[in-house]
Design a protein that fits this description.
9 helices, Rossmann fold, 2 domains, alpha/beta, five-stranded parallel beta sheet
């Protein structure tokens, strides 16, 4: 892997001696990178690959992002949801699986909610009554949901056990139960995340 310093990248993209369009500079940089690495993946954008005939193949990112909000006490069952969604081709985001050492976790969580295609708040008795991050994440998701088209499915609440979903959510959004039949609940969750034409 090649690491370029900022000055090197600036010289590569904007050489003083050439008047080359930015697109051509980026294509040259992309070709050089692909020649060395074979494939370049830009998370959330797609991947580039150099074909045998010299053409560049672009495959857009198609994995829907799903933010999982939960109380820490429910981590094990939510991890099962996370694994299920990955197997179904989604790109789930769960703090215990996705945060990296040294990351500013409040900012990373906000960003993950902002770019999510769906937010799945996982309600349990503990999650409903406990103060803390789960409540803040759900409130932030509700705020982000106000920017979505009115008919769009964005917030997809699930209940992990018998509990009372907050009235604000219950009045506007249908939730699904992942109990007593966890697999059936996951099938309903999946149906909500895969829009019908």
């Amino acid at each position: 892997m090649t690491v370029l310093e900022e000055a090197q990248l600036r010289d590569l993209l904007f050489p003083q001696t050439q008047d080359v369009p930015l697109e051509a500079k980026l294509e040259t940089l992309l070709r050089e990178t692909l020649a060395k690495e074979g494939r370049l993946v830009l998370g959330g954008v797609g991947s580039f690959q150099l074909e045998m005939d010299g053409s560049i193949q672009f495959e857009p990112w198609t994995h829907k992002r799903v933010f999982l909000a939960y109380a820490v006490e429910d981590r094990l069952i939510v991890k099962a949801i996370y694994r299920f969604l990955r197997r179904q081709g989604f790109h789930p985001w769960m703090d215990s699986e996705c945060l990296l050492p040294g990351q500013n976790w409040p900012k990373a969580i906000e960003r993950a909610i902002e770019v999510a295609d769906f937010v799945v708040p996982c309600f349990s008795q503990i999650a409903c009554r406990k103060r803390g991050h789960f409540q803040a994440e759900v409130r932030y998701a509700l705020e982000q949901g106000q920017r979505m088209p009115l008919d769009a499915v964005y917030l997809v609440p699930v209940r992990l056990e018998e509990c009372k979903v907050p009235r604000k959510i219950q009045q506007q959004t249908q939730y699904t139960d992942l109990f007593p039949d966890f697999r059936q609940g996951l099938r309903l969750l999946l149906a909500a995340l895969i829009p019908t034409p």
